[in-house]
Amino acid sequence: MRRKILYISIAAASLFLSACTSFLEIEPLDKVPASQLFSDISGVKVVLATLYNKMPMEDFSYNPGKMFNYHKDASGSFVDIGWSISAYTDESLLSHGTGVGPVNDGYWDYGAVRQVNQFMETLPTVTMDAAQRNRLRSEAHFIRAYIYFGLAKRYGGVPLITNALDYVAGSDNANLFIPRSTEKATWDFILSECDSATQYLPATVTAQEGTYRATKWAAQALKSRAALFAASVAKYWNNAPLTGDAVDAKLVGGMTIADANVYYNICLASSKEIIDNSGKQLYKATPANRAEAAKNYQDIFQNPATADIEVILKKGYIDGSITRLQGHCTDVYFNPAQTNLGYIAYGRFSPSLDLVDLYEDYTDDGTGKSATLVTRTDGVENDYVTSPTVMDVSKSYKLYANPADIFTNKDARLSGSILVPGSTWKGVTMIMQGGLIKKDGSKLIFTDGSEVGQDGKTYYTYGASSMTAYSGFRGMGVFDNANYSCTGFSLKKFLQEGKNVQGVQFSSTTDYIDFRLAEIYLNYAEASIESGSGDETLAKTYLNALRRRAAHTDQIPATIENILKERRVELAFEGQRYWDLVRRREYHTLFNGSKRKSLVPILDLRQANPQYIFVRAFNYYDQNAGGVTFATKSYYKGIPGVATNKLVQNPQY
């Protein structure tokens, strides 16, 4: 049976065929005869486009808790896609609640591996010039490297299959039962695939192809990221050691410090190759002031095409509000309540106070230390209440006339990434308020209500009388109503400020940046310091170049603490934090009955002129759950289907 498949989920559609419709009638790649699929170069490029869509890119269409990157499940039903992997970390929560834990996306796509292998094996049968064939083959190596990277970081060592295996009726088909390779062999294979990709991929592409199609720099970027991952696992395995058959066979773990240093050096070399020879530069690297720096940083993500000088590879979308087979839901789900687009779910992204506290101010004294928000006059900033309903109103809370004042002087990337109380978004002042302190000192918290102040004006619990006029704290604990921030913050990064997207699923079309130069700078810096074999002066230069782009004027040392903090700030919400915690084996110590934090603005009506105080609180959902924990076994996912595929299972599954 023929089925209708979207032409391609990346905006590279037009780079393969100059004239095409939105859809192509093709059969599944594993069922169409090669003679039909590969009859000419145009057909080959269509197949390649489909393979690009098979890369496990954790983009705006990725749901880490349900399914990987596809709009339909096996039954043909639409999948609720577009929730963020950031909410599995200390960066954010979903406003309707989420718990920390391993991704549960079901990724085990050996069908994609087969399709890539089939593509490679059939290329020689198609008439084309050698240069064209070499490029296509290198592109397939890039895609296969990407697929195996998605597998390795989830499972460790996996079966390495480089040819299209066929089932033979009447045979025992022993050839189909490929055992798992060691984790080290799997990482080595991924890196060798990146080398094969680099061999014939171009250094530059046409304007039509843009940064949607892989170049040699995309292959080097993948190599940099994968090598850093492998190095970290090798170095930090003993922070969360496991036991069992898979460990004994080195299917997980089994790498040494010497292996770590080899991988760190590979990361250094790949990163340096990009930095020195790709022509990539930081987008608007020397802003005149903080406001300009914040706007420049925001522009990278709300319109990535403007920042192609920094972008190495990105994925594009077209409006899928009608077909539901394209586009994504970022603007739809994550716009704050005051600017929601009309869909039933909105305001669902709540950045954590843990992240907000991490940003520097502009003291710029050469230390690079974080500037914790000042909520108290007694200097106590580690006092978190289980809920603002039980706060002690007699404590020394600092008073603010305007809720935005507490964020004054914070790193420009904060205002480029996060909507804070009192900030402006689409011309609307963000109101995020969790309650009132009445004139008599009693509290009205997390519940509808009002109170007349000493000035004779009426004030409301959530900052306004209408549900559409505020964006925080309403509806917590009720999934269908949880369209308001549960932390006191909302998302700004990635959202379109100057464009009114339809309030329909899959109507967002913002490009997703997969690789950019900033990450490569940070990869180099981390690998340099962790291995001791890189150039520490260069590591410091790259670290401070990112800070200079954020309008900082000092130079801080390239310590591992500074580099990791800079990763969290520069790459916030870009999907890196989850895997950074995994590869460095920090997840289980960070989340061990732990609770993420919220900042709750409360209007104090005991003052003649009402003032705001800010209460540090454990997040509502984490508090109700008794804290959240990451199990050490979850550094690897369980191998699916071991009863039939005869693979050795990972520890504790």
Tell me what the structure shows.
The protein has 653 residues and is an alpha+beta fold. The protein has 2 domains: 3-316, Alpha Horseshoe (Serine Threonine Protein Phosphatase 5, Tetratricopeptide repeat), CATH 1.25.40; 353-494 and 596-629, no CATH class. Helices cover 32% and strands 10% of the residues. The protein is built from 20 helices and 18 strands. It has helices spanning 13-16, 34-37, 41-52, 110-122, 130-155, 183-200, 216-236, 245-248, 257-277, 290-302, 330-334, 353-356, 412-417, 517-531, 536-549, 560-570, 576-583, 587-590, 620-624, 642-645, and strands spanning 3-6, 23-26, 92-94, 311-315, 349-351, 418-419, 424-425, 428-429, 435-437, 443-445, 450-452, 458-460, 490-491, 512-516, 592-594, 597-604, 611-618, 628-629. The strands form 8 sheets. It has a 4-stranded mixed sheet. Helix 4 runs antiparallel to helix 5 and helix 7 (216-236) runs parallel beside helix 14. The radius of gyration is 26 Å and the shape is globular. The model is unreliable at 1-30 (pLDDT under 50).
Concise overview:
The protein has 653 residues and is α+β, with helices and mostly antiparallel strands. The chain is 32% helix and 10% strand.
By DSSP (H or I, 4+ residues per run), the number of helices equals: 20
Q: Mind telling me the CATH class of the largest domain? A: Mainly Alpha
What is the annotated CATH architecture of the largest domain? Alpha Horseshoe
* Measured distance between first and last alpha carbons: 38 Å
**What proportion of the residues is helical, as a percent range?**
25-40%
* Named CATH topology of the largest domain: Serine Threonine Protein Phosphatase 5, Tetratricopeptide repeat
Main-sheet strand order equals 10-9-16-17
**Largest sheet geometry:** 4 strands, mixed
Label the overall shape. Answer: globular
